């Protein structure tokens, strides 16, 4: 009886805690959407409201009129997609090799992967800029993609090696007996089983590249190459005061690709994260 009572009390509390957590996560996006739909007079009001009294799309029109958001979104999409695809293509065989071919070097490589995540990115910006300048990759999309690939790879490698460990060796041995080589085994046997992990890794790399600001600020000088985070900064004037209406509208539009990607692959992402937590 006491157990049933505890369960009866605990369940509503769990749902209440979950609801509070969801509200906490949704608050920034809800406030951003509310601000984007408000008139300048409502934003300047001393009595702010959640729901705009007179909703307007003028902020969106003004944002597109002031800045080339379409071109910036195209730049971000091209860079983020390319970096994410290359990250998965390179991390998958590397993770397989680290797990299946055990040696001292493999252990050192995994240790270095963890250590590399400790260093703050700000420490490597100047050396990285000098290297890319020597390679004539400064102010190019290719240079930015290379940077994102470099910084996404360690974490992607660490994620995928946990999934590879969960693939039974017997499946690979059976394919080898049938005459399949290592590359074919990886492509036809291992890769399909790693689909949830690949999706989770791809999403991590995409969002990391889509939202990145510091490297893009340092490496890109041509306005035509600017990514969305760089364009959003332009809504802040020289005096440091941001025009909240157009900025909120542009920021809201910048979140749409990430939200759409989440919605499309939500199930595979959840399965991938749970599987990685268990297998890792």
Overview of the structural elements:
The chain is built from 14 helices and no strands. The protein has 280 residues and is an all-alpha fold. It folds into two domains: 1-56, no CATH class; 69-279, MetI-like fold (Orthogonal Bundle), CATH 1.10.3720.10. The chain crosses the membrane at residues 12-33, 77-99, 111-132, 144-164, 185-207, 244-265. InterPro entries: BP-dep_ABC_trans_perm (IPR050901), MetI-like (IPR000515), MetI-like_sf (IPR035906).
Summarize the structure.
The protein is mainly alpha-helical. Helices cover 76% and strands 0% of the residues. Helix 3 (58-66) packs across helix 13 and helix 7 runs antiparallel to helix 10 (195-211).
Amino- and carboxy-terminal Cα gap: 39 Å
**pLDDT below 50 for ≥5 consecutive residues: which ranges?**
272-280
Give the beta-strand count: 0
Provide the CATH top-level class of the largest domain.
Answer: Mainly Alpha
CATH A-level architecture of the largest domain: Orthogonal Bundle
Task: State the helical fraction.
Answer: over 70%
The helix/strand order is HHHHHHHHHHHHHH
Domain count: the total is 2
The largest pleated sheet is described as:
none
The name CATH uses for the topology of the largest domain is: MetI-like fold
So, the CATH homologous superfamily of the largest domain? MetI-like
Secondary structural class: mainly alpha
Radius of gyration, CA atoms, in whole angstroms: 23 Å
Membrane topology: Multi-pass membrane protein
Protein name: Sugar ABC transporter permease
Keywords: Cell membrane, Membrane, Transmembrane, Transmembrane helix, Transport
Subcellular location: Cell membrane
